[in-house]
Specification:
The complex is a heterodimer of chains A (330) and B (519). With 330 residues, chain A is an alpha/beta fold. In chain A, 43% of the residues lie in helices and 19% in strands. Chain B has 23 helices and 4 strands. In chain B, the strands form 2 sheets. In chain B, strands 1-2 form a two-stranded antiparallel ribbon. A two-stranded antiparallel ribbon of chain B has the order 3-4. Chain B is globular and about 65 Å long. The chains are: A alpha/beta (330), B mainly alpha (519). At the A-B interface, α1, α2, β2, α3 and α7 of A face α1, α5, α9, α10 and β1 of B.
Chain lengths: 330, 519
């Protein structure tokens, strides 16, 4: 017992030793997994914030977006950090209902989830690639599409929401019944869909030339190709897109609310926003921020994307997912 | 000796029971229980979880029998390598094994229960080879020889001599495999597709995608109740079936031509089956744009994929992080497991309670433990949410039962009168205890430590739910690399998986070498 008591005591001492008092302020930015912790231009930009203000920023990653929001709701009022990055519009209502933010969060980037197609496959077969959601029901696209399960994958959910927006509360179930009859394949995660089933990704083993992915997947194919390539092997059906927006805000209960607000301001400023495309493969929120060539050339941003009110998403998400399960997986 | 039990009991209470009870107390109530248990999809989830676990366990026992026998009883060149090959899959991150199986299995198998079961068997053959093999290795040769001399047929020897001796180990293996397959998460997600969720997958979906933490907690309690019953029941059987063994056991070279053929066949089939997914992974790290390339390996140390573009994933840095976690987790689990094993060995009756208690973290949803820690360790003096050591501690909770498992059978085999004899001959009680018991534990302790290190290296579930402030561990870096668009990151992910496999294999073989030298 004594030994255990000593260990407990030591742990307490170590834990207390971490608290800093006085000196430069350190605040914590909570983000989803794919937010880079160091080594990218995004992190260099954050360093300039520290240099200018004396506020240092620790990054803590908290799982995928859904996990991050669940954790934040559980710890609302006594948060894990000071600022949260990356709550998207499908989780925004859960976050605001859970009262995790101090004030309203601001949009920090956006991007589209769209049907991507394998250019070479359609050229070889002499078939026009699809444009719209309606097109995907046509017989020439039978057994060609692979999508993600909306219960387990964020692009999968975005695509389901696109179809609900397009066909309405009364029509989307019929659409999915027909899509199923036309041989849509469902997998659990984006990487299984894109790399195991889709034929267009470099190095993919797949044989389906249509996949639900991101509007920025084609430039990623160019940027991350080895040896280098000049043209993207994939493109996007731009009438099938759903707009995903991400938000950042000060967490309620932050011990450094003023510094946290300063950081949110910086996240919205040009020096940080210009790193959005090539680090996170999303678009900056401000029109004034220049885009890299590879983005203007290969990325598709839909002029008329599908969207949905976050409250409507939050109110119906589970019901829609359950209905979708009944229609598509049974 | 009860003093020794204090350490594991306190660790278990503080880092396992307290967070879990805090979470359950916060969210589980009559309304959430009623809502969750009435959910229309639940019976289907429960049924699939149960039958796939039963089938996976039965198949693992049947298919693992021959390799366990051959590796335990025969001596042949490359034996240690084959042992390591058979063990490595067990340690691999599920995301990696999942990717390998997707590449290997025919398309029509994707998203089927069959794919899940095949992968489960692949994973768990190691449990058979380890647990049942260990028992088989000490089965005295004269026992079977005597039975044969007295006219028993080989099947009779198997039924009346070999199986009774192996029964406790078979029960242990069956319960471990059942535990793992019942709570399976990564494999089911990757291979089972959307139509085959297990309870663990459903818990994670509710907690992370639907924000339904109440429901997730209720299902965790349900899962825990099922597994507590299984663990308790199997521990009882393991004790009842225990047989005292006296005599010599030795591995021998296969003698007759028939034996040589049999051993060769079993070893070849095992090695090929275990290596095929591994070879796929290694190959993929060298394939870029449909041609052979070293690009993924060349860029491994550099997180800049090309000038100005970086993913912010530092593959080699994650190796260092993983090794650091593994060292810490191994140290913690050796201390906890060592103390627990000595206490269990000494206090025979209450020992079982501790033994079962230590197994529980294995059967508890990682999401639930992670969320529980989050709301428990959030205020001074327990404000540990952002502490890096929570991660190796989580690993150690999972690894400790394996350390206990490798120590307890050896401890129980010590004749009780030896220590008394040593004391009679003038040794102090402490000295007698040290000389008679502790020193002999070095060998099983090395095996347990190797196992713990490998578990920490491959652990994926709990780690993803604990806050991560530093660089990520290797399984998480691999998962992130495989989850990015673009070819180079993907090939890098497979290169990292290769590195992880090699490190794990080296650790396993090193602990085997300790075995060999000391015996």
């Amino acid at each position: 017992m004594k030994l255990a008591a000593v260990i407990l005591l030591l742990m307490g001492v170590v834990a207390c030793g971490d608290d800093n008092d006085g000196g430069p302020v350190a605040i914590t930015l909570v983000a989803y997994d794919s937010f880079p912790k160091d080594g990218t231009p995004l992190n260099e930009a954050l360093q300039t914030f520290t240099d200018d203000t004396g506020i240092s920023v620790d990054i803590v990653t908290a799982g995928d977006t859904g996990t991050m929001v669940s954790k934040a709701v559980l710890t609302a009022g006594n948060p894990e950090g000071d600022v949260m990055w990356g709550v998207d519009n499908t989780f925004l209502s859960a976050a605001t209902d859970g009262q995790i933010f101090d004030g309203n969060p601001s949009p920090v980037n956006f991007g589209d989830v769209c049907v991507n197609y394998d250019i070479a496959w359609f050229t070889d077969e002499g078939i026009e690639p699809p444009d719209t959601l309606e097109d995907l029901l046509r017989p020439e696209y039978r057994d060609l599409l692979v999508v993600e399960n909306p219960s387990t994958s964020s692009p999968g959910l975005a695509f389901l929401l696109a179809t609900i927006d397009e066909f309405g509360d009364d029509g989307w179930q019929q659409y999915w019944t027909e899509l199923r009859a036309n041989g849509v394949e469902v997998v659990d995660s984006w990487d299984s869909a894109y790399y195991e089933r889709f034929s267009g990704a470099a190095g993919s083993a797949g044989d389906r030339p249509l996949v639900v992915s991101y509007g920025s997947s084609p430039p990623a194919e160019v940027v991350f190709a080895d040896p280098p390539v000049d043209t993207a092997p994939t493109s996007v059906a731009d009438q099938t897109c759903f707009r995903q927006e991400e938000y950042a805000g000060v967490l309620r209960g932050s011990k450094h609310p003023d510094e946290a607000r300063q950081l949110v301001q910086f996240l919205l400023s040009e020096p940080f926003q210009r790193e959005m495309p090539l680090t996170l493969f999303v678009y900056p929120v401000s029109d004034n921020v220049p885009l890299p060539d590879v983005f203007t050339k290969y990325a598709v941003i839909s002029n008329n994307p599908h969207t949905m009110d976050p409250d409507r998403i939050a109110a119906n998400r589970q019901q829609w997912q359950d209905q979708w399960n009944e229609i598509v997986l049974r | 000796m009860p003093a020794l039990a204090a350490l594991p009991v306190i660790a278990l209470a503080l880092f396992y029971a307290w967070p879990l009870v805090t979470l359950f107390a916060r969210v589980v109530g009559p309304a959430s229980v009623a809502d969750t248990l009435r959910a229309p999809g639940l019976p289907r989830v429960l049924w699939f979880t149960l039958w796939q676990a039963l089938v996976s366990t039965a198949l693992t026992l049947v298919l693992g029998f021959a390799p366990a026998y051959v590796l335990a009883r025969y001596h042949f060149p490359g034996r240690r390598a084959v042992l390591a090959i058979a063990t490595v899959p067990f340690m691999l991150p599920t995301v990696v094994v999942g990717a390998a199986f997707l590449a290997l299995l025919p398309r029509s198998w994707h998203g089927t229960a069959g794919a899940v079961i095949v992968a489960h068997v692949f994973f768990n053959i190691a449990v058979m080879v380890r647990l049942v093999g260990a028992m088989w290795a000490v089965l005295p040769t004269d026992l079977t020889a005597a039975a044969r001399t007295l006219g028993a047929s080989p099947t009779k020897v198997l039924r009346h001599v070999v199986l009774p001796v192996l029964r406790p180990a078979l029960w242990a293996a069956a319960s471990v495999v059942f535990l793992f397959t019942f709570t399976s998460f990564g494999v089911v997600k990757l291979l089972g597709g959307a139509a085959h969720p297990t309870l663990e997958v459903e818990i994670a979906r509710r907690a992370t995608q639907l924000g339904d933490i109440d429901g997730a907690a209720v299902l965790s309690v349900l899962q825990l109740l099922v597994l507590a019953v299984v663990i308790w029941w199997s521990a009882r059987w393991q004790r009842r079936a225990r047989v005292a063994l006296h005599g010599d056991a030795a591995t021998r070279r296969p003698r007759s031509a028939a034996q040589r053929r049999g051993v060769t066949a079993v070893v070849a089939v095992t090695a090929v089956a275990m290596l095929a997914p591994v070879v796929v992974l290694v190959t993929r790290s060298f394939r870029l744009g449909g041609v052979w390339s070293l690009a993924a390996w060349r860029t491994l140390g550099d997180d800049e994929v090309r000038p100005g573009v970086s993913l912010g994933i530092d593959p080699l840095g994650s190796l260092a992080t993983s090794l650091r976690y593994a060292v810490a987790a191994t140290a913690i689990s050796v201390v906890l497991g060592g103390a627990a094993a000595l206490a269990i060995g000494a206090a025979r009756r209450h020992g079982r309670l501790l033994d079962v208690g230590l197994m529980l973290p294995l059967g508890t949803s990682a999401v639930t433990i992670g969320l529980g820690m989050l709301i428990t360790f959030d205020r001074p003096p327990f404000d540990w949410r952002a502490s890096w050591w929570l991660v190796p501690l989580g690993h150690a909770l999972v690894a400790t039962p394996f350390v206990v498992r490798s120590l307890v059978p050896v401890l129980r085999s010590f004749p009780a009168d030896q220590r008394a004899a040593a004391i009679t001959l003038g040794a102090s009680p402490l000295r007698a205890w040290w000389e008679v018991e502790v020193r002999r534990l070095a060998r099983p302790l090395a095996a347990g430590a190797g196992f713990a290190a490998a578990i920490s290296l491959g652990e994926f579930g709990a780690t993803t739910f604990l806050t991560r402030a530093g660089t990520e561990s290797m399984p998480i870096a691999i998962d992130r690399l495989l989850g990015r668009a673009g070819e180079v990151p993907r090939a890098q992910g497979f290169a990292m998986a290769t590195v992880l496999m090699v490190v794990t294999a080296v650790i396993i073989m090193a602990t085997e070498a300790v075995h060999a030298r000391r015996s």
